[in-house]
Amino acid sequence: MASFVVQQYKVQRYLSCKSLKEAQKCILISIPITCAISIMAMLTGWCAYAYFENCDPITSEWISARDQLIPYLSLYMFATIAPGVAGIYMSAVFGASLSTTSSCINSCSVVIIEDLLKPIFKIAARTLKIYL
Fold this sequence. Notes:
Layout: H1 2-5, H2 8-15, H3 20-51, H4 69-78, H5 85-120, H6 122-131
Helix pairs in contact: 4-5
């Protein structure tokens, strides 16, 4: 629930809707999608646990940190399917994370401009409107 009402980039998306009903419809559509993504993330963790149940990649020094487990598993499993599939998969994962990061940075910059800079430079903005 908190991710739907607290994150700045999501609130900006709701505010860009034409009406309150449209924003509510947007939230109702995104709830099952978010639940499905969360379930897939849990299943991925369970698959990694089952795959490495008898062999710990950290103690075997195949990886150096716990957050490298899922990328290592995907690269290890896709390496036998076809050359290049692992690279395409990893580029898609990094592309998705960069998209989310850029949305967050954009939202933070809008908050800084609207809530911090505009009140400070309100007088300057009025004088610019007069001259334009």
